[in-house]
Amino acid sequence: MNQIGYMYLHFDQSFSYDITKNGYSYKRRGVKMNHMHIAILGGDARYLDMIKKLSENEQIKMELVGFDQLNQGFTGVKQTDFTSLEVEKLDAVILPIPGVDQNGQLHAVFSNECIYLDDKWFSRLSDSCVLFTGISTPYLEQMKQTNNLKLIPLMDRDDVAIYNSIPTAEGAIMLAIQHTNFTLHQSNVLVLGYGRVGMTVASKFKSLGANVQVGARKASDLARIYESGMDSFHMNDLAAYTGQCDILINTIPVKVVTEPVLNQMKLNALIIDLASKPGGIDFDYAKQRGIQTKHALGLPGMVAPKTAGEILANIISQLIFTH
Amino acid sequence: MNQIGYMYLHFDQSFSYDITKNGYSYKRRGVKMNHMHIAILGGDARYLDMIKKLSENEQIKMELVGFDQLNQGFTGVKQTDFTSLEVEKLDAVILPIPGVDQNGQLHAVFSNECIYLDDKWFSRLSDSCVLFTGISTPYLEQMKQTNNLKLIPLMDRDDVAIYNSIPTAEGAIMLAIQHTNFTLHQSNVLVLGYGRVGMTVASKFKSLGANVQVGARKASDLARIYESGMDSFHMNDLAAYTGQCDILINTIPVKVVTEPVLNQMKLNALIIDLASKPGGIDFDYAKQRGIQTKHALGLPGMVAPKTAGEILANIISQLIFTH
After folding, report:
1. Residues of chain B whose pLDDT is less than 70?
2. Cβ-defined contact of B304 to A209 (cutoff 8 Å)
3. The whole model's pTM is what?
4. pLDDT attached to residue A102
5. Nearest to A184 among B170, B209, B305 (CB)
6. ipTM of the modeled complex
């Protein structure tokens, strides 16, 4: 197999299984495989589909730590005891979505065992080892400094956020259909924020026939909203736009839906907040006015865990071979 | 008010309340109102939003029969006892969605009283009275013949079916998001039938990024599907298309998803049947194979009762003034 073929396989294996399914695996061709040794240390249900997808990549040899209560088995995946893990040999380590807490403890829902990663443990990792986590934590940042680690917080990546915005928008659509007594078609939808999530949400609701208005601050965002055929307004003018709104979807992680904004809203309007905690809504005041609110977090894992797992597996597969 | 203004008001009142809200009602202008006397005889929760919408039309004077258990009141709507109803004076009668059964009994869920409409009752209706029902029944057809009635089965109308296809498609979207672990985006969706419902369902799923293939029989339908940018296939070839399908949505009220078709399907595929009873799926065989099926009937009333009620109210408002 020539170099180009090898590169092609690298790329393709991270996004599809067709090539291996069609019998083009390294083994059958007699080419020596350079396995990537990956350890997955803890995690919750969101990781199961990621593990399944990664396990289909023949270039990856995986060991699971902190999954001892898991009944499900994966072909070619080994459950390993934390203490017997050969840390020095690892090419990559995947930590849970919430990372490691201030005491170095791992979030491992499929294990009763408490697993701590201390400075000594991190120092055993090879220079080339890549460390993945969902989000970084002060403790992990400290370990990164001390041990010169290659740390990749997956959820901070633009590509992951954009891929995840698809199941997030579908989750918002599901909630909007469930919790209103009218069709999304021809309803007045306000989307606040036109970032990685807001852009997807606005376009999906528009494609279902809703009258979408998007609030943003950046002049370039307002221009892009206009270009996309939707109405735009500056967030400073929000209160002037909420009166006719049937569904308000917020993606801004700052309290933007305040008392004066809520005072303009119809009482049968629905508010969906997609912004991370504490969200962008004055929930207490909304409740006081009797306006229905849904603070919907982690929608990708809820409405499309398989897709959410595949998004992580695809990105990890790409990154471990390019770092 | 001139004739044109009057016509405009007629049309507009059936689709919006703005004109009356803005103070342009007949009374204020001192124009004599020709009220339409309507009796609503029985019905279920689906009728409440219709009644609410109709009650906002100042040209309509409504009486409810068979709603005695209803706590909710509507402005300007009178609850009337069946026996005291002045049948001869009615301009229109609205019967329940399922019509009247073979004994002449009305379906009235908000009443303990059993109400029967006999031949004598129908004979009392004036020649100009319009009778609305959801669907016709053999009994109603017989009464229509005997008494020369103007009977309009609303659910048979193309316009009602097309308006209702919107909440139906949104309900199918909700179910598809709820009952799969992947995103609709990039999923393989087969839609069977390209009639009033199939056309809406296919276009909505396509607009959410699904790979939609539509099965139909008519050459003109296959051409229209192609024109809409989707893949089409002849229903005779269905079994050749089900292997890659993630979600199958049937709208054909004939058993088209048979054993040989189901044998090709992935076990984690989802089948949504929107066709009226008994539907188009071999449900027993699907269950035997472990394929998840949802026979989703009456979605408009479930996911968007307000919109579903408004659709009926709008059509009735149009028809009573033009018949």
Report:
1. 1-33
2. no
3. 0.85
4. 93
5. B170
6. 0.84
